[in-house]
Design a protein that fits this description.
Blueprint lengths: L20 H35 L6 E4 L4 E7 L3 E7 L2 E6 L3 E5 L3 H5 L1
Antiparallel strand pairs: 1-2, 1-5, 2-3, 3-4
């Protein structure tokens, strides 16, 4: 029967080694660092840029809303802005729904 199963060779048993604490912490730290640079940091940067954009809104700016509406700001409040979409059509938007400030003259060139 030895030809089917290899015989086990006896080995001298050494002292059992404890796994290193650093060996198990280094992969975890590496994963956190990778997530920081690839996910968390860019998101924080985008959030900061959006807060600065919202804080800098003023009357006369041409903006695009998160829903894709293009218009000119006619009134700025604490929480809301009034945006004129065309002659006689004005809507109120939350400040945070403004996605982008476009260069002046964009409305005229898009018509």
């Amino acid at each position: 029967m030895d030809f089917l199963i290899a015989s086990a060779m006896a080995q001298t048993a050494g002292a059992p080694q404890q796994p290193s604490v650093w060996g198990s912490l280094i992969p975890l730290i590496l994963i956190v660092v990778i997530f920081w640079f690839l996910l968390i940091r860019p998101q924080m940067k985008r959030n900061k840029e959006h807060r600065e954009l919202i804080a800098g809104l003023s009357v006369g700016d041409e903006v695009v809303s998160a829903g894709g509406l293009l218009g000119k700001i006619t009134e700025v409040g604490d929480s809301f802005v009034s945006v004129q979409l065309s002659d006689g059509v004005t809507v109120k938007l939350q400040r945070h729904s403004v996605a982008q400030v476009v260069p002046k003259g964009t409305i005229d060139s898009s018509s």
